[in-house]
Amino acid sequence: MKAEVAIIGGGPSGLLLSQLLNKAGVATVILERASREHVLSRIRAGVLEAGTVAMLQEAGVGDRMAAEGLPHDGCFLTDDELMVRINFKELTGTSVMVYGQTEVTADLYAAQDAMGATIVHGVEDVVIHDADSSEPYIEYSVGGERKRLDCAYVAGCDGFHGVSRKTIPEDKRSEFERVYPFGWLGVLSRTRPAHEELIYANSSNGFALASMRSETLSRYYVQVPLSDRVDEWSDERFWTTLKSCLPSEVADHMETGPSIEKSIAPLRSFVSEPLRWGRLFLVGDAAHIVPPTGAKGLNLAVSDVHYLYQALIDAVKKGDKTGIDSYSERALLRIWKAMRFSWQMTTMLHQFDGEDSFAAQMRKATLYHLSQSETARRDLAENYIGLPF
Ligand code: RFL
Ligand code: PHB
């Protein structure tokens, strides 16, 4: 098999890159380890920046999002009973879109199918060869058979646990990491959302987030120790904990019901630099992870694609390498700013095990400052709605 660009990983970044390249007449092949059903069953991100929305529209997958997505003009940050509204629209002129990653991925699969793009599912033992030469190729197994894919460029879109990043020799990359001492327990339920807008709650009982997927589907998270297991969390325990973290004016009127999904995700900040080695380019979670507190993971994956796709088109179609030469540097500038914001939101809103008495006072003071300073709210809003590409 042959492709101009081989894409490892059929998550949001691989699919979006493939879609934009195919639209420009660049031939791709996506190699995805999991089945399509598995990729579509992963409940993850929910908030899209305006720049992400624009990119999806440019890729020709914006129609269902425009019809079914929920534009949000603001969100709340709370400290026990104090509710601080961050009015994105007024402070920045922009809003965000609540539309699940599952839906984004489903729309991209449908568009790729309509274009006749090649997506191979169930691949195993992917090995990237000669990425630092002018003739890279990939070997992989599917259905027990070893195959070869020749290509001009390789896009590593295979997430944090993929093979692409590890293909870059250790002495050619630097890694930066912070692991947080807690995770998020997430629950999806067919209930009316607790509020019209998202609530990021700091409280004496820990962090909680009230989010949603639609007017009848809620997504909630609470902070849990890393040692906790999902089976230790009955629905009843979850709802009681969640309510104890939210302001009572919200908790008292909240609809609860059976969970339809429940999972625990650890929180980490991670960057691997650079994003390029020869003809291999890292995109999205393959290169960087943010804690979900700032809703930046999927949005960063999309901004990486923004920097890379035109660069690859120029390289393949015109032999112009200026874009691919500057990809890593341009993308990393924005990545580090989102890293900073996600770390700051995480620190501002979570309880850390064994923290001193000073820490809780700092969180409280930050929330009160936000409630009183439009400048502070504007800074948060600017980062939340997404810094310019
Ligand atoms: P993905 O989605 O991990 O996709 C990688 C794909 O590669 C496949 N793969 C391989 N394929 C072939 N060979 C191999 N060796 C392979 N190894 C892996 C995998 O099967 C998979 O299909 O990475 P991608 O495309 O870069 O997308 C990144 C986003 O998924 C991620 O950043 C977000 O989900 C993060 N995130 C959020 N981001 C936001 O922007 N807003 C949010 O509100 C938000 N909330 C979240 C989140 C992530 C969460 N979890 C569980 C990590 C909430 C949660 C709880
Ligand atoms: C979600 O709805 O899953 C969600 C929303 C905002 C975040 C993280 C996750 O910051």
Could you walk me through the main structural features you see in this protein, from its secondary elements to its overall organization?
This protein has 389 residues and is an alpha+beta fold. It folds into two domains: 2-70 and 96-177 and 268-346, FAD/NAD(P)-binding domain; 180-267 and 351-385, 2-Layer Sandwich (D-Amino Acid Oxidase, Chain A, domain 2). The chain has helices at 12-23, 36-41, 50-58, 63-68, 88-92, 101-115, 164-167, 235-245, 248-251, 297-318, 322-349, 357-372, 374-385, and strands spanning 2-8, 28-32, 47-48, 70-72, 74-79, 82-87, 96-98, 118-121, 124-129, 137-142, 145-156, 174-189, 199-202, 208-214, 217-224, 259-273, 276-277, 280-282, 288-289. Strands 1, 2, 8, 9, 10, 11, 17 and 18 form an eight-stranded mixed β-sheet that branches. It has an eight-stranded mixed β-sheet with strand order 6-5-13-14-15-12-16-19. The chain has a three-stranded antiparallel β-sheet with strand order 3-7-4. Strand 5 and strand 6 (82-87) form a beta hairpin. The radius of gyration is 21 Å and the shape is globular. 45% of the residues are buried. The structure holds 8-demethyl-8-dimethylamino-flavin-adenine-dinucleotide and P-hydroxybenzoic acid (PHB). Residues 45-47, 198, 209, 211, 219, 292-293, 295 line the site of P-hydroxybenzoic acid (PHB). 8-demethyl-8-dimethylamino-flavin-adenine-dinucleotide (RFL) binds at residues 8-14, 31-34, 39, 44-47, 101, 123, 126, 157-159, 161-163, 184, 186, 265, 284-285, 292, 295-299, 301.
